[in-house]
Write a structure and sequence with these properties.
Elements lengths: L3 E7 L14 E7 L4 H7 L4 E3 L13 E5 H14 L6 H14 L5 E5 L11 H23 L20 E3 L24 E6 L4 E6 L2 E8 L5 E3 L5 E5 L7 E6 L2 E9 L4 E7 L1 E6 L2 E5 L5 E5 L5 E4 L4 E3 L5 E5 L8 E5 L5 E7 L1 E2 L8 E8 L2 E8 L4 E10 L15 E5 L4 E4 L26 E6 L2 E6 L4 E7 H15 L12 E2 L1 H6 L3 H11 L4 H16 L7 E2 L3 H15 L4 E5 L9 H4 L19 H12 L4 E5 L6 E8 L3 H10 L5 E2 L1
Antiparallel strand pairs: 1-2, 1-5, 2-6, 3-4, 4-5, 7-8, 8-9, 9-10, 11-12, 12-13, 13-14, 15-16, 16-17, 17-18, 19-20, 20-21, 21-22, 23-24, 24-25, 25-26, 26-27, 27-28, 29-30, 30-31, 32-33, 34-36, 35-36, 35-37
């Protein structure tokens, strides 16, 4: 739903004899805000009244009502101060306002319920309504004084604008949620091609038969948000939740701009692509690939040279600056307004904890990735000098035990860190096991001293000797195997093939056709993929073996690996890595995935829903998500064009592979 302010007329107020919602006529509205003119017209004589179209509004005042005579007088007084209309848009706008106000109904209602972010009947809502009424009274006073400065936004009324709103004397007031109607019921759609209903913008996207690429947006009650006369193409309505629509023009389809949900121009088109990150942030990518983070709505430059941008689970935004060496890319974090939380100096920045606002960060130092701790002010609490810091997943905040954090220092010794990043004791012993949840318990650690496994408390004091390290690890492994039901399971019989066996069956032409399906039809990239794969096989250890039901299957999977690892057209996701689903665009370098969002993450068993969400997002782009091997704990993901799906399936089956297309 798009929050909207509405202004309309009625013969009776609720509670008065004769009140009938079906008799409410006229419509002035504005999405996202209450226009200055709406406030001025309800003015000083306003009163709060109940409004039964809202369930809670039957018994509690929630809208403002003013005598129409007062509104008419205010409009006449304002008109004497206004500049003379200089264009057709100004004449039409003033005519629509005058017509609605002269409709003969005695009451004017200002409905701003959707724009007060509190429930009707609460003290906060009452305060919000009072603030709106006080602002209306101040504007009315300014009008009586003839204060041109206070009224400046209203003195040059043209077409619909943030100050005046959208006016229609012919449309009935919208008293319910705006929803799709049958197109044959709407005369203004006759003769147009309806591309589809855009739920996010609450509009039909339409075009003419002669220019299918030029599209416009119109509401079910006939308000043109984007008139066809503007000749816009490539309307990006999927950013409507953030309050924006991106567009290009037919004359310059490679230049993109931004408008708000009222169709008001915010940023004029400029060469390159645009991606809305949040209600306040925009990424612009120039034709040469240069990328920057801009502020909305003014387009001010916030951060230059920023590449991958992704919303995190903690509500903040990851940003990355790429280099020629992926391992030297740097990451930082900003909030949704663009304020830097963590500067762009780290190789990774994990999520912040919900209570203790601490995150794990990493840096590449002398060829090693070492970890530290930072707070939500961007201050480094613990320097990046630890081999590992305990957390649940590769992006989680540090795990707390008695307000301490388990870590392994650069020398491989176990230690505990305080919440301000200081060592709780001097590290002396390495951990006894590398598995998470084994080296550290809720009250103690398992460490090694003189080849024996010991327990140690969080102050560094040894508690009890258990056994040799080898026996300790064997015992832990046996317990885990039994818990997972692996103790008596026979190893599955596998087929595998050497590089020579695979190369003997390799048909370069056929492989290029197969690779092209994996690379969205890019023949040159497919040829490169095949060359990389076959060259790697030729130089491989002759005794190396690759799994597959046939040499062709093994080769097909190696092609996929090349497309994924070397060319960025696929990825692997472990079934437990559900938190990586929202970051799929970082794993698969595909423009169509850049703006993918998934807000329904639950836990590890929600991976199927995550993959379904990716597949649904790709569908409008005519792309299909592929899992190269079904039934495995790891998902081997790629993307093919929808038009290639059947051909891809056929080729894979010929090679004894059974990929799943989502």
């Amino acid at each position: 739903m798009i929050n909207t302010a509405a202004l309309f007329s009625t013969a009776f107020l609720p509670g008065q004899a004769g009140f009938d919602t079906d008799a409410i006529t006229g419509l002035a509205e504005w999405r996202l805000d209450v226009p200055t003119l709406f406030k001025l017209l309800v003015g000083a004589g306003t009163q709060a009244v109940v409004w039964p179209i809202y369930g809670d509004g039957e018994d509690c005042p929630c809208v403002l009502a003013a005598p129409m005579a007062q509104a008419q007088a205010s409009w006449q007084a304002l008109s004497t101060l206004m500049d003379k209309p200089r264009d057709a848009a100004s004449i039409v706008a003033r005519g629509a306002i005058s017509a609605l106000l002269a409709g003969g109904q005695p009451w004017l209602i200002l409905d701003g319920v959707q724009l007060i972010a509190h429930d009707i009947g609460t003290p906060d809502y009452a305060a919000g309504l009072d603030a709106l009424r006080a602002e209306a009274q101040m504007l009315h006073s300014a009008l009586l004084r003839g204060d041109r400065d206070a009224l400046a936004p209203l003195l040059t009324i043209g077409a619909a604008s943030p100050a005046t709103g959208y006016w229609s004397a012919t449309a009935d007031a919208q008293l319910a949620d705006v929803e799709e109607l049958g197109t044959d019921e709407l005369p203004f759609l006759q003769g147009l091609e309806v591309v589809g209903w855009e739920e996010d913008a609450l509009c039909y996207e339409v075009s003419t038969a002669g220019e299918p690429d030029v599209t416009g947006l119109v509401t079910p009650y006939g308000r043109w948000i984007v008139p066809l006369s503007q000749r816009y193409v490539d309307l990006g309505v999927y950013y409507a939740d953030d309050g924006w629509i991106t567009f290009a023009t037919a004359d310059a389809p490679d230049a993109h701009g931004v408008m708000d949900l009222n169709g008001t121009l915010v940023l004029p088109p400029a060469p390159g692509a645009l991606y809305v990150i949040s209600p306040h942030l925009l990424q612009r990518i120039d034709p040469d690939g240069a990328s920057r983070l801009l502020r909305l709505p003014d387009g001010a430059l916030l951060i230059d040279r920023v590449d991958n941008i992704c919303l995190r689970e903690d509500g903040l935004i990851d940003i990355e600056r790429q280099t020629d060496d992926d391992e030297r890319n740097v990451h930082g974090v900003v909030d949704k307004t663009g304020k830097v939380v963590v500067p762009l100096v780290y190789n990774s920045v994990h999520d912040f904890g919900t209570k203790k606002k601490i995150a794990i960060v990493s840096q590449r130092i002398n060829g090693r990735f070492l970890f530290g701790l930072a707070n939500s002010q961007g201050e480094l609490l613990a320097p990046c000098q630890y081999e590992a810091i305990d957390c649940a997943t590769t992006s989680s905040p540090p795990k707390l035990r008695k307000n301490l954090i388990f870590a392994i220092d650069a020398q491989g010794l176990a230690c505990m860190l305080t919440l301000d990043g200081k060592p709780a004791f001097t590290p002396l012993y390495p951990p006894a096991h590398h598995l998470r949840g084994v080296a550290v318990q809720s009250d103690f650690l398992y460490v090694v001293k003189d080849g024996m496994a010991w327990s140690m408390d969080f102050t560094g004091q040894l508690l009890e000797q258990f056994d040799t390290v080898e026996n300790f690890k064997a015992n832990v492994t046996a317990q885990l195997s039994e818990a997972m039901g692996l103790g008596k399971k026979k190893p599955a019989r596998r087929r595998s093939f050497t590089p020579a066996q695979i190369l003997a069956k390799a048909d370069r032409g056929q492989l290029r056709s197969m690779a092209a399906l994996l690379l969205l039809g890019d023949a040159d990239l497919a040829a490169r993929c095949v060359d990389i794969t076959l060259e790697a096989l030729a130089e491989d250890d002759p005794e190396e073996e690759y799994d597959g039901d046939s040499p062709e299957a093994a080769c097909f999977f190696l092609l996929w690996s090349t497309a994924a690892d070397a060319l960025g057209h696929g990825t692997t996701l472990d079934w437990k890595s559900v938190d990586e689903v929202p970051r799929i665009a970082q794993h698969i370098g595909l423009p169509a995935l850049r703006d993918f969002r998934w807000a329904d993450q639950q836990d590890g068993d929600a991976m199927a829903e995550g993959l379904a969400a990716i597949a649904a997002y790709l569908a409008p782009h005519q792309l299909r998500l592929v899992n190269m091997q079904d039934g495995e704990d790891t998902y081997y993901l790629g993307v093919v064009r929808a038009q290639d799906a059947e051909a891809f399936k056929a080729v894979a089956l010929q090679a004894a592979l059974r990929p799943v297309l989502l």
